[in-house]
Design goal:
74% of the residues lie in helices and 0% in strands. It has 171 residues and is mainly alpha-helical. The chain has two domains: 75 residues, RNA polymerase sigma factor, region 2, helix turn helix motif (Rna Polymerase Sigma Factor, Chain: A); 74 residues, Arc Repressor Mutant, subunit A, CATH 1.10.10. The longest helix is centred in the first third of the chain and has 26 residues. It starts with a helix and ends with a helix. The relative contact order is 0.10.
């Protein structure tokens, strides 16, 4: 049992922060993101032997996280959102978007329907292929392509209607 636990700990130690960031992009709340990661890692631990047999363990875990988020979205108490909260930390590396730009982008992302947001996060944040995204969401590749196109078009329209986005571009 110790070898199994050690393998699991090593896997989680390397992937905890990327999973946490992915969860935040999906739900836009650090506390909920931590809950989602905890739920996902609990399920992963219970099914660790089976999960290790997956062709791509990272994709398997991202699918578990996405499904945990979609399940949480269905719960009635999760329909309320706080809009006054800022992210817990800001990365100040050169070339990175400013805090204001990130907030605007996260706000735009938050306006997308849950499935479209999941497609955008999996395809463009996690850099998954259309096929991997389709497999995780349990849909066809055509659905992923159309949802991604519609989501990007929605983001463009929302960004063009947002006066704050225009002021962010005029640096």
């Amino acid at each position: 049992m110790t070898g199994r636990d050690d393998e699991f700990r090593e896997y989680v130690a390397v992937r905890l922060e990327p999973l946490r960031r992915m969860a935040y992009l999906l739900c836009r709340d650090w506390h909920t993101a931590d809950d989602l990661v905890s739920i996902t890692l609990g399920k992963l631990y219970r099914n660790w032997r089976r999960a290790q047999g997956a062709d791509n363990l990272d994709a398997y875990v991202r699918g578990m996280l996405t499904n945990a988020w979609l399940d949480e979205r269905r719960r009635p108490w999760r329909r309320e959102r706080s809009t006054d909260e800022l992210p817990d930390r800001a990365d100040l590396a050169t070339g990175e978007p400013t805090v204001g730009e990130r907030e605007m982008l996260l706000d735009l992302l938050g306006r997308l329907a849950p499935r479209r947001r999941a497609v955008v996060v999996l395809r463009f944040y996690c850099d998954l292929s259309v096929e991997e995204t389709a497999r995780i969401l349990g849909v066809t590749t055509g659905t992923v392509k159309s949802q991604a196109a519609r989501a990007l078009e929605s983001l463009r329209l929302l960004a063009s209607d947002d006066p704050a986005m225009d002021s962010g571009r005029q640096r």
